[in-house]
Amino acid sequence: MLYGASMALMIKSALGLDPWDVFHQGLAEVTGLRFGWVVIGVGAVVLLLWIPLRQRPGVGTVSNVIVIGLAVDGALDLLPAPDLLAVRVAFLVAGIVGNGVATGLYIGARLGPGPRDGLMTGFVARKPGRSIRLVRTVIEVTVLAVGWLLGGTVGVGTVLYAVSIGPLAHMFIPLFTVRPAGHAPAPA
Question: Is the pTM of this model over 0.70?
Answer without folding.
Answer: yes
